[in-house]
Amino acid sequence: RVQTRFLSRGRHMGRIFLPIALLAGLSGVAYAQTAPASEIAPAGKLRVGMIAITVLGGVAEPVARFIGQKLDVAVEPVMYPNPDAYQQSFGKGEWDIAIGPRVLAPADKADSTADLWVINLVYVAAPGKQFPDIASFYKAGVRIGTIRVAPSDRILTREIKAAEIVRIPLSPTIAADAADLLRSGKADVFGADSGVGYPAAEILTGAKIIPGAFAMVRVAAALPKGRSAAAQAALAALLEEAKQTGVVQKAIDAKGLKGVNVATK
Questions:
Q1: What is the pLDDT of residue 17?
Q2: Of 132, 184, 213, 260, which is most buried with the most CB atoms under 10 A?
Q3: Rounded Cα distance, 2 and 24, in Å
Q4: What DSSP character marks residue 141?
Q5: Which residues contact 236 (CB under 8 A, 6 or more apart)?
Q6: What is the pLDDT of residues 32-87, one digit of tens each?
Q7: What's the pLDDT at 34?
Q8: How far apart are CA 262 and CA 245, in angstroms?
């Protein structure tokens, strides 16, 4: 009888100790989950570097808010007026993560995630200009407009050998500026991301999008160099969740963007 009571008490104590052990284990898991978060947002808020145009910052902001909610921290957008300013911000400690063109993130100053969304680079032909395809105007005498120091400018500078490149600065009214350049006759076509190209074609009567994309901009997030593998993995998991649950697609749709798609890899 004594042995029976002892065994019964042992089973009862086991039932007490088991939840305690589970709680201890779970608290360890929670700590492991929050440790990378303290690296991603070390100041208790998430400063997110972005470029202040619809196709980049306009999509990045909802994605940043999603990450902030998951980390339970406030989000502070750090907007840059143009691609050059964004690129120059790397290594200066001005943000905790950045979301922008992969090509602008220096590998020696940041670790980039997988792509979040991709943006087609397209050409808009001026009214009355007939170009059946992209290759038909890569020749002397043709003037190609683009946005100074943007990814499109980098690509055109590298690939255009004969045609003239006419550069204009990025501004809040860039689509209208591109339309004005074509209207004035200073450029025969304008090459830029689809977030600029399609609106410019809609603004300027008679302007047309030339079939096909001449390149693609891949948008990714980046952490400052030196963050741990755990922090990188945690951010990558959050961004994959943003893609899989439709956060990125909804951000694209909310802006009515054409030629912009969620990255598949």
A1: 36
A2: 260
A3: 32
A4: T
A5: 113, 114
A6: 345 688 999 999 999 999 999 999 999 999 999 999 999 999 999 999 999 999 99
A7: 58
A8: 11
Give all strands (DSSP E) within 95-204, no chain letters.
97-101, 110-125, 143-147, 164-168, 189-193
Closest CA to 194 of 143, 148, 151, 254: 151
**Nearest partner of 242 among 142, 121, 113, 133, judged by Cα:** 113
Q: What is the pLDDT of residue 4?
A: 43
Residue 35, pLDDT score: 65
Residue 141's contacts (CB-CB under 8 Å, 6 or more residues apart) are 163
Pair 55, 196: CB distance under 8 Å: yes
User: Are 191 and 144 within 8 A, CB to CB?
Assistant: yes
> Tokens for 160?
């255009």
The per-residue pLDDT for range 232-242, each reduced to its tens digit, is 999 999 999 99
The rounded distance, in Å, linking the Cα atoms of 142 and 162 is 8
Whose structure tokens read 């890899």? 265
**Contact at 8 Å (CB) between 161 and 141?**
no
Question: What are the structure tokens assigned to 216, written together?
Answer: 């693609």
- Category of 126 on φ-ψ map: left (φ > 0), alpha (ψ -120 to 50) or beta: beta
Nearest to 102 by CA among 219, 215, 214: 219
Strand partners, 62: none
State which amino acid sits at residue 95: W
State the helix-helix crossing angle for 59-71 and 247-254, rounded to 10 degrees.
Answer: 150
Instruction: Tokens for 257, please give them.
Output: 């963007």
